[in-house]
Amino acid sequence: METDQPTEESELAPFVIEGARSSRSKCKTCRRKIDKDVLRLGILLEGPYGTGYLWHHLNCAAKRRFEDVEEAFAAEAWNAAKVVPKDIPPLAELGKLREEAEQKKKERKEIPWAEVSPSGRSKCVTCGEAIAEGSVRVNLGRLVEFGNQVRTNPVKVHPSCVARQLGEADCDTDGETLAADLRANSAGLEAVLLDGALAQIDAS
């Protein structure tokens, strides 16, 4: 449980919307600190170690837990705060945050995919060299520890370095289905460019 918990458990409401009373709590959605006075949503949890709130930035909750936000607004959860916060955004405004988050999720590429490098700023994770602007780069999956979780993040690789990256212990891309996956996931990349990248992968 986070700090800043009310002391009278019998009076805890299912939800509370308030300005954070300190900077000690962390958002359970984005894992970042909730700064003092920033609006947060508390969701009551009864667990083996007691009863208390799990805190989320209100905006983060709108993006990932909108049903909870709706319930909190229906219950006028700001009235459960010790100090009723000012400038609570309308539910419709928070709903737009959810819609934007869902749209970004739909547009998110499926790993692995190939694309044209829009600049020369990115570097190949395998060889460390820059990936030239206008050249094809391949995005492979790499396992990354995040707190007590393990996630798959995309890493950018030269086509000629793909075989070496596939051999890394933390690589989370299946080499056997790579060609088919790249063809399925690389929408927008010209077929001739993808064919050239696959030829480089096969030759490496």
Account of the 3D structure:
The protein is an alpha+beta fold and about 200 residues long. It has two domains: about 10-105, 2-Layer Sandwich (first zn-finger domain of poly(adp-ribose) polymerase-1), CATH 3.30.1740.10; about 115-204, Zinc finger, PARP-type (first zn-finger domain of poly(adp-ribose) polymerase-1), CATH 3.30.1740.10. It has helices at about 60-65, 65-75, 90-105, 160-165, 180-185, 190-204; strands at about 15-20, 40-45, 50-55, 115, 135-145, 150-155. Strands 1-2-3 form a three-stranded antiparallel sheet. Strands 4-5-6 form a three-stranded antiparallel sheet. The protein is elongated. It starts with 14 loop residues before the first strand and ends with a helix. The model has no long low-confidence stretch (mean pLDDT about 90).
